[in-house]
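Request:
You are asked to prepare a plain-text protein record giving the amino acid sequence and the backbone structure tokens, at your earliest convenience.
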Amino acid sequence: MSDLSDPVYKEIVTARVKLLFEKPFFGQLAARMVCIDASAWCKTAATDGRHFYYNREFIKGLSKQELLFLIGHEVLHCVYDHLGRRGGRDPKIWNMANDYIVNWTLKDQLVGQMPSMGLYDPKYTDDLHSEELYEILKKNSVTIKMPLDEHLEMSGQGDDDGDGGDQDGDQDGNGQPKKLGNGQGSGGTVDVTIMGKDGPPKLTEEDLQKIRNELKAAVIQTAQQVGAGKVPAGVRRKYYENTDDAIVMWCQDIQDDAFRDRLRSIEKTRP
């Protein structure tokens, strides 16, 4: 269990506190994630929506500003639901598309400083959905580049080589998630709340849906608390376009004409 006597964990906590004051939307969502030293399998950082997995040596090699950026990076992967939206797409191209949009958003929001290995192209803005950028990259036969962090898999999605094999010992001989002794977790499958220290968590569809619901509620609540003006435009569009109730809840303090027009158009469609 990490504690503040661990200098690496202390650096992460300090960065999250700084985000709370300077970028409260990112800080509040980062604060809900449990930090786990996953150096045994994670080369950089990763998230499953509930946890912030990190490699100690990677964190130690970042400046304070780069650490702020990294934490914001993991937050946006959660907010944009990148794990749940991948479907059958090529994971390497999908991860690149996600990182281009996430990193553009963080630079636009002035969240820390992007590490040198981060993917960035000024034309790949948050006006694009990841699905759109994925098709652009695929059509252009883009050279595969490594993203800033590691992107987790759902059970059954397969590994990055696309062969569906399990290399982490988290599945039984039939390719199903191992069950815990007392049937803990979602329907007796791997409990993501206790996985991740010795190997990456394998999320079932049920696990993922629970996490997605938690994140949706957390994003809406956080936006209400900090004010929509402090929420990235791409995040606002995602939730405004797809969740009518979120619009109604959020629009109390929005003065922008575009969002007022959006609210009026939705209200006209209500019975």
Notes: The radius of gyration is 19 Å.
